[in-house]
Write a structure and sequence with these properties.
By secondary structure, the protein is α+β, with helices and mostly antiparallel strands. The protein contains 15 helices and 15 strands. The chain has three domains: 121 residues, Rossmann fold; 150 residues, D-amino Acid Aminotransferase, Chain A, domain 1 (2-Layer Sandwich); 68 residues, ATP-grasp fold, A domain (Dna Ligase, domain 1, 2-Layer Sandwich), CATH 3.30.1490.20. Bound molecules: adenosine-5'-diphosphate and magnesium ion (2 copies).
């Protein structure tokens, strides 16, 4: 019989909309001869809905593939909704593998992964630890430093410390990093909550803004650099893709430049020397293994203009996954088309599950 694949999308994070788009591409490209799809939508409030009803609950149209899918018997009873634990205990039996197409907190950070560990259901992508480390920029940087990966200068602190003694902290940031600098919530993605500060006034405002999204913050020196990204695929012996480059339409690659204005472009492969290509692919693999990654990750770098050196910026354990997104496009350019990429990710999820048990 066909493999029953739960595709989870939406979610409580600031990347809810992006996740819906990623999941749409996933559902449209899962081979209908191999898989039966169970959509699982999570509203912004955190309610879980399954079946076609998931789409109405999230206020969006279901992909036509789903309407055509002839469901196996008993599917009607799976169209239930509720908070995660209720839903999953009722449907766990009916799912062979889950694809958590979720970006950001409560999806890409190990929380959902923990739920599937408890339910003993195989799932695509990073496990609990790798997801959590990859989501938290402060923890991620500590792990990268330990692995000997070069990165830009940064300062990390809790929101409560800023609230208590802002002036001391601002002095410290100015002394260590200077301007311009980037202020970020530690746990977020899609550039949500990130701003570039040019002076003390804008730094203060940037911290206050980032503090809306997380209790932990990070400030980094701004580097003048090209942005190069590498896709990683695999479990214990990960493969790396050709590198790609982001040509951002604005001053930095913010939410608008990523999703809205349609003017940012992806250069695949990036125009790099063979030596640069080998270096950055190697660094991507080190980063993936440093966080104990599995399945997939996109590792993002700065190629600093003045030094010509690569600095690691971040790892994303569930990167954007629409047909236009960097991760699948990098694999396409490396020889794995989108539908085959999904087959491989599902195979890796099952392999990892077996190895654990
Ligand atoms: P996210 O996880 O939200 O994608 P990033 O750390 O990748 O957060 O930051 C988003 C974007 O902001 C980057 O793609 C880059 O354009 C810009 N940026 C972030 N940090 C720096 C930095 N230290 N120097 C220069 N640009 C930066
Ligand atoms: Mg990110
Ligand atoms: Mg990024």
């Amino acid at each position: 019989r066909k493999l029953r694949v739960g595709v989870i999308f939406g979610g409580k994070s600031g990347e809810h909309e992006v996740s819906i788009l990623s999941a749409k591409s996933v559902i449209e490209n899962l081979n209908p001869l191999l898989y039966e799809i169970l959509p699982i939508g999570i509203t912004k409030e955190g309610m879980w809905h399954t079946g076609i009803g998931a789409y109405t609950a999230l206020g969006t149209e279901p992909p036509k593939q789903l309407l055509q899918q002839t469901n196996h018997s008993g599917s009607e009873s799976m169209i239930t909704f509720g908070p995660a634990p209720t839903l999953t205990s009722a449907t766990a039996e009916a799912i062979d593998v889950v694809i958590p197409v979720l970006h950001g907190p409560y999806g890409e950070d190990g929380t959902v992964q923990g739920l599937f560990e408890l339910l003993n259901i195989p799932y695509v992508g990073a496990g609990v630890l790798a997801s959590a480390v990859g989501m938290d920029k402060a923890m991620m940087k500590a792990v990268f430093a330990q692995a000997g990966l070069p990165q830009c200068k940064y300062v990390t602190f809790l929101r409560s410390r800023f609230d208590k003694s802002p002036e001391i902290l601002l002095d410290e940031i100015e002394e260590t990093l200077g301007y311009p600098c980037f202020v970020k919530p530690a746990n977020m993605g899609s550039s949500v909550g990130i701003s570039k500060a040019k002076d003390r006034t804008s730094l203060k405002a940037a911290i206050q803004n980032a503090a809306k999204y997380d209790r932990k913050l990070i400030v980094e020196e701004a580097v003048d650099a090209r942005e190069i990204e590498v896709a990683v695929l695999g479990n214990d012996e990960p493969r790396t893709s050709v590198p790609g480059e982001i040509i951002s339409s604005s001053e930095f690659y913010d939410y608008n430049a990523k999703y809205n204005d349609g003017k940012s472009t992806l250069m695949i492969p990036a125009d790099l020397t063979q030596e640069q290509t080998e270096t950055v692919r190697h660094m991507a693999k080190i980063a993936f293994q440093a966080i104990d990654g599995s399945g997939l990750s996109r590792v993002d770098f700065f190629l600093e203009r003045k030094s010509g050196k690569f600095l690691i910026n971040e790892i994303n354990t569930f990167p954007g996954f629409t047909i236009y997104s960097m991760y699948p496009k990098l694999w396409e350019a490396t020889g794995i088309p989108y539908d085959k990429l999904l087959d491989e990710l599902i195979r890796l999820a099952l392999e990892r599950h077996q190895e654990k048990n």
